[in-house]
Structures are given as C-alpha cells and as structure tokens.
Amino acid sequence: MHPVPTDDQEAILHEIRKFLTKSVDADKCMAWEKEPGSAVSALKSSVAELGWFGYSAPEDVGGSEAGFVDLSLLYEELGRGLLPLQVINYMRGVQAVVDLDPKCSLLNNLTTAEKTICLSFDEEFNRLPENYDVKIEGDAVYGRKCYVLNAESADYHLVAAKEKGGLSLVVVENKDLKFQPLKTMADDSQAHVDYSGAKVIARLGDAGNGKEAFDKMWLNQRLLALSEMLGSMFCVLDTTVDYIKERWQFGQPIALFQAVRHQTADMATTVTACRHLTRQAITRTVAGTVESTEVLSALAYVGQAYKKVCWAGHHLHGGTGFVVEHPMHWHSERAQSYCIRYTPEAPFLKAITAKLLD
Amino acid sequence: MQYDFTAEQIAWRDEVRAFLKDNATEALIMETLEIGNEGKGPESTKFMAALQKKGWWSLAWPKEFGGMDRDPMDTWIFVDELEKAGVPMMPLTVTSVAPTIMRIGTEEQKAYWIPKIAKGDIDFALGYSEAEAGTDLAAATSKAELKDGKWIVNGQKMWTTMAHMGTHVWTIVRTEPDEPKHKGLSMIIVPLDAPGVTVTPIMVWPGLRTNAVFFDNVEVPEAYQMGQRGMGFYYAAMALNFERLSLGSIAMAHRSFKLVVEVVKEATFDGQALKDDPWIRERVGRIQMEIDAARLMTLETAWALQGGGMPIAESSMSKIYASELTQNITDLCTQILGMSGQLHFSDKSTLGQGWMQWLYRLAPMFAFGGGTNEVQRDIIGFMGLGLPKPSSKKLVKPGTKS
Ligand SMILES: Cc1cc2nc3c(=O)[nH]c(=O)nc-3n(C[C@H](O)[C@H](O)[C@H](O)COP(=O)(O)OP(=O)(O)OC[C@H]3O[C@@H](n4cnc5c(N)ncnc54)[C@H](O)[C@@H]3O)c2cc1C
Hints:
The structure holds 2 protein chains of 2 kinds. By secondary structure, chain A is α+β, with helices and mostly antiparallel strands. Chain A folds into 3 domains: 7-110, Butyryl-Coa Dehydrogenase, subunit A, domain 1 (Orthogonal Bundle); 117-208, Beta Barrel (Butyryl-CoA Dehydrogenase, subunit A, domain 2), CATH 2.40.110; 212-357, Butyryl-CoA Dehydrogenase, subunit A, domain 3.
C-alpha cells in the first residue's frame, strides 16, 4: 500500500497547483461569473496547452496518455484550485469520449479545445439510461434532455439515447437545438435541450449496445467527481486552519477556543476518511481489485462529508466567509451540486446494504 | 399540564391565517425570496401597511405605547404564521429596538422615538458588529465624543444590514475609553442621512445585501444617546435577546419542507414514486420529527416569557436546535428534489418553488449570526445547568493544597 502520491506525481501536482494559483483567484471568479463564457475564453487555450483536455487520451489523437490515477490527481487539483466549472465540464466531455471510444476522430479537435463537447444524459424525471425517453431514429435524435452542462456553448453534444431496444451513444452538432437555460445554485451553465431530429455525426460504439460502455464511462465521471470533491475539501480545510489562526476575538486567536479546535479536528478527520475512500476506490478500480463495497462506500460517503466540511468551514469563517468575494461559497455550492449530480447517497447506500444482506 | 392552545389562541391563529390568506400573495412571497426577509420591496411595503392598519405592527407592545399588549404566546403564534406563509417578518425596529427603548429610554426618548416607530417613519439598521468585533461585540472601537452638546461619531461598522434602506442606525460606540471594555460602550442612534455617514454594499452568498457603514466626524444630538452611558453592551445584549426569540423559529424551513412533501407525494423519478423510496420516506419522517421537537422548544420560550420568566438558556437551546436543523433540512430536501434541487427560485421549472436551495445558502448564517452557537452552548452551560463559568484564573481543586 502507498496511500499518497509518489514523488513524481507530487512534482506534477506542484506544477498544476502553480498554474491554478496563478490563473484562478476570487476576483477573476467574480468577474467570470458576471459574464457567461468569459472563464472559458480566458482559460481554454492555456488549459489546452497544458494538455489537460486530452490528459488521458491516446497520443495519436493529441492526448498525453496519462493513466486514470494521474488523471484523478489532476482533478483533485482542479477542485482545490476552483478551476471554473465550465472548463472542467469541457474536460469531462473529452474524458467521456476517450472512455467510450479512444479512437474517435473528433478527439483530434477536442484535445486541442478547437472544439468542445458536453454530456447530454439526464432527463427531467429519468436518470437511469434504461428509462430514457429520448430516442434515435434513422440517425437523428428526438426528445428532451435536461440539466445539460455547457449545453448552449458546446460545439457538440454527446447524447445517450434509446435505439433498437438498447442504449446508443452518439454525437450531434450544436445546430438548430432549442434550449431552456437554467439558473442553478453553482451557476454552471445548464440548460434543458430539445433535439427534434438533430443529425448524428458520430457514433461511439454500436447502435443499441452502449449500456455497458456507458456505465463504465459514468463510473469514471463519478470517480473524477470524488477527486474534485477531495481537492476542494483540502482547500476548505487549509483555508479554515489558516483563518482560525489569524482571526482574533476576545483577545486571542479563535484557534485557541476548544470548540473551534474540535470542529477543525473533526473536519480534518472527515477529510482523511474521504482521502482514503476516494483514492482506494480509484486505484482499485484501475487495478481491477475491487472486492466488495470499496467503490460504493466512497460514492455514498464522500459527497455527504464534503458538504459537512464546507459547512464547518463556513461556520468557522463567520461573516468573512459569507461574502461573495470569499471562495468558501464556491466550494459549498459545488458540494451540493456534485452530490446531486454524481453521488446521490441513496442508491449507493442501497447497493452497499444489498451486498451485505441479499 | 397540557400542550394544546387555548380556544382564544386558536381563534387568534385563525384570525392571522385569514388575514394571510388575503395578503400573502405569490408576488409578495417571490419578492421576499429575492430581497430577503428584511428587504423593503413594493410588495412588502404594501404588506407592512396592511399589518399596520390592523394594529398588528405593534402587536406585542404595551398599551401605553399604543400597542395591543398581546402576550408572548399570541406573538409566537403570529410570528409562526407569518414565517409559514413565506412573507416578510416584522422589522427588528419594531420587535427588537422598540422594546429595548421602552425599557432603557428616558421619558423624553420614549415619547420621541416610539410614536415615530409605530407610524413606520423610523427604520433602524443594527450597528453592533465591526470588522474586529463579531462574536466579541464588546471589542467595538467605533467611538463618540461629546463636544458642545453633540456627539461626534467616528469609526466603521460591518454587516449593517438595512443601512441602505433604513433611516437610522442603532449602534454601539465607545464613549468611555478609560472604562473596562464591556463598560465603555454606549448606545447611540445615528441618522443615516447625517453628513459624514457613508454606506457601502457587501453582497453575501444567498444573494442578499448587507453593508459597511463609515462614520467620519458625524454630529449627533446629545439626546440620541439612549439610556445610560457605558451601558451600550448590555442594551445591545437586551435587544439581541428580543431578536433571538425569533431566531429560534423553524417556521421558514418548515414551510419549505411542506412544499417538498407535496412534491414527494406527486413526483416520480425513474419510474418510481418518490413516496415509495425508503431513503426518502425515512428522511421525510426524520425531518418532521425534528421539526416537532424544534417547535416545542420555541413554544416553551414563549410560554416561559408569558409567565414572566427570562428563558435565556431555553432560547439558546431553540436557537442552536433550529439553526442546525435548518441546515439539515435544506441539505436533505435539496437532495430529495434530485436534479431540480439545484434550481434557483427564479427558475420556473424548479420543484418546490426553489426555496430549499436558497435556504441552503442562507443556513450557515443562522449558526454563527445572532450570537454564535458556541457561545449559546456556553450560555446553556452556565445559565441553564449552573455549570461554573470558564475562568482565566488558575484554579485549585478543593481539598488540595495550592
Ligand atoms: C448577512 C449578514 C448579516 C448581518 N447583519 C448584521 C446586522 O444587521 N447588524 C450587526 O450588528 N451584525 C450583523 N451581522 C454580523 C453577525 O452578527 C456576525 O457575523 C456574528 O456576530 C459573528 O461574528 P463574525 O462574523 O465576526 O465571526 P467571529 O466572531 O470571528 O467568529 C468566527 C468563528 O469563531 C467562533 N468563535 C468566536 N468566538 C468564540 C468563542 N468565544 N468560543 C467559541 N467559538 C468562538 C464562532 O463561532 C465562529 O465560528 C451580519 C452578518 C451577516 C453575514
């Protein structure tokens, strides 16, 4: 067992952190929030230059061929450094294509960010692919997808839809689509999308045969979400520890109050549990050594813990952490948004219990 | 012993409900969400005028001040109904500052300020906190010096909510610099339109505005210093106690929860009715159970006040319980609503009116604001349980030699 990054990985992480510290700060985040799309314009080319869009893609489509563990460490840093969600979600789009079809020719333009892609899976009342209503008929997509991140701005949509009694994964161009933009807690550019005959320009896998590939890809998306959450928690904990040492009340640093120390110690304990669960889930998934509930426990626990850590951080910052210029709220917003999208607790708790009892 | 309301109390509750049926419009509820409880939009101005017309504005005030002298239980019922309806709460000017003035003000001060407050001509922002004086309120350094029959006020207040909309700030400033810190503060009223007052906005996470207020040689009449000099800290504590009585309320979260329950009854996700999902059923039951407990805790505070008591430990318990429960409720309910749980209340497609995600962003403030929960826990310890107060002196265990 080696539950921490190697020296080589640390060296890479150091460079990633350096870039994020230089490129993302609260003032910039505030400005980006005011102007939709501006974060992507500001960061896309430098992120592409660093090779992050195609971090795990094969070299012949412009990727860096990093393994999934290295990719997950990159995502930890994205969470810690608060890389804007629009950029992360484009990276996630490319990753999904890599997972589904690493030879897909669209990747040549996606890894360089000349083109962008979003993931169009959820429906208003359906999240499980077997229940999707959206259909593919004669190479065109029909129906409504919901809560699609970057829907309006992405060049392509990767759509999961019913076909031939099974699931297909196809790409359509963002042309003549109808959008209903949504105002969300994390301000992450979501929209409902109507596909009334959008033409399929590429297929990732065989028609009607995509369920297994979809599940694998979606598990990877969830695991990367865990990494982001973990990185964000590292940041919340570090920021809080620094703050309680700096902030004086009653003639002393608030860090000297036992109640404050206990809460911070609880945060650290929770983050440690999350670190182990996340990194175990990822490394054992990659190694193919998952034996029982390792992945399920991580998926059930980390998101819920993330919110608790953020709330404790908020509490210990008092009013200072409540202003819109302070980064705390971006972490807290991501905490709940990510829980809802990637790691809702209920299905994983049910799956754990089923493993134990059924 | 009995927990039921009396027939009179039920009749009063029904009267309030009937009023709210006519006056708690959708437009008012949306406006309250958008600009917060303390905002003064056109709808809330109309609503407050209707309350004034009924005489309910000064519901709990004694008759001698033109009030209705309603007792704490009736007041509790009134506040509970307002919060449940999702309409703005009574301004703190009426529920916190006015009762304090009634107790501490000179006869002239009462005669000057109370009728103006009753008419709605005066609206206070509360200027207690400063950048370095949050939980430690007594550390305030803004100061006032008496010169030629006028107070000259200098300094900076933080988090002065409503200062951009109010007429005056009810503020503590240091007037006795040579006294120990708790005894060196006085309560002064500063008109917000006085020369030398600058109000700058501070935007906070749930999308609400609060302010920083700067005093630069602001001249204030001597008579605007309220009660006794050097007692400002204790007057602020008194006003905060009045404020805290409503902070223990769980009604806003309860209202939002009821909306979520309606969604759960109807909605189907992935072909499964939400109401058949064991995880959701367990959560819904747990929330209701805790709301039941929280309501009783605030009721006990009202009941104790009714009997002439000063239920300080009880109101601290309610405040902690309600603030932490609100966080829990908003967290669970945003999850129950699934992907729709992240939608803003202005988004028409949101389920449950989007209250939960707004409350989720507001909730952390309930725990550190209005007297942080750690201090409330200390209060329960020494006021409620008779535990010794923390002391900086070195202690000697009885029966041992020093
Ligand atoms: C949106 C908003 C509106 C507000 N409106 C007003 C207003 O209208 N008027 C006004 O006067 N103020 C207002 N406040 C200020 C509010 O009352 C303060 O935020 C609150 O008193 C906490 O002070 P602080 O933020 O400085 O936190 P701090 O006092 O710095 O506290 C930071 C952390 O330290 C902990 N802590 C501090 N002291 C102790 C201790 N002795 N033991 C254990 N733990 C401790 C706290 O619990 C907290 O977790 C508002 C604040 C906000 C965010």
